[in-house]
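Notes, p. 3: input format for complexes.
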Amino acid sequence: MISVKNLSKRFGDHWVLKDINAEIRKGEVISIIGPSGTGKSTFLRCLNLLERPTGGSIVIDGVNILQKGTDEPKLRRKMGMVFQSFNLFAHLTVLDNLTLGPMILLGKSRQDAESKAIELLKSVGVSEKLHQFPDELSGGQKQRVAIARCLAMDPEIILFDEPTSALDPTMVSEVLSVIRRLAKDGMTMAIVTHEMDFAKNVSSRVFYMDEGIIYEEGKPSDIFDNPQKEKTRIFIQRIRKFCEKVVSRHFDLYKLQANLELFCARHTADKRTVSHILLIVEEVLGQMLLPLFPGDPAIELTLEYSEKTGDFQLLFNYAGLQQNPFLLLPDSDNLSLRLIEKLTKSSSYQWIAGRNHLSISI
Ligand code: ADP
Ligand code: MG
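Output follows (362 residues plus magnesium ion):
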């Protein structure tokens, strides 16, 4: 359906895309992942000519769209785009947001446009909001309306640019469910996303972008479980596991907690779980571990998410005397200890290779 060859894009003297080669077949769902700033958005924007590529070719249904004389508006109608920031028309009702394009660009009658719009809004679960304005909707509802608006134009492919990044964690799954349903219905889609579990479960192929190219591509199981190239491996490892070293008594707890929160959000942890994790980290570091170090501490903290069990596991790893910190705290009236016990599924202490390992499941 789409064949991209040697695509490049330069801003000033910065080559953001160096040499992109990709094929997207009808009915495929492609997840595009990679560190930020590696040109994922630029790639999508080049595909639908929101950005003019510097070189290369993009062939869609046999036509090279970069050749002069391409009917750009017609091309854009084949491709819907859904943005992180929704981009709904703020001064139009939900219904009008959906009917404007089909009436003006596709020449549909108001009646046809409206009945299709109502059907689509039903399918994304916001049919009771027809006459409201975007500002009156939650983020998740806005994004579902944006997807419905895109579908109202009968696109052949939809490009999503981080469709859930601007949403509260509680609203991420309602939007992902809609996208998942589209995938099941056979819609061709390319999705830039940080939702790795989603990318793993929904996509037919994954593109990992780095260094201005599609650095590695493959089936989700190849990319996530068995990446072949160094940078992909590092990226996947980082997603799986959050690691941080605490090496000063005056470490920035708030920054650490913010980073933990971000990691949790990427694994769609609910608010309760997140707040438990933050609290446990604060208590374990502050009340249990820091007092063990006479000077500056050297503690490696990791947080891991298990897709199998849906649990988060916190690990604290540090050198020093072999001693189980749970046993060091006076038991009966210790609030920290009781808090931690109350909030965890299980915890354990081990002495391995000369280091203390404290492991807590949440
Ligand atoms: P990603 O979506 O992977 O985070 P982007 O495609 O947004 O990356 O950006 C890749 C690089 O291109 C960044 O360094 C960004 O600053 C630069 N860039 C993107 N758009 C423009 C633009 N319109 N003008 C100049 N530089 C841009
Ligand atoms: Mg981007």
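The longest strand covers residues 14-24.
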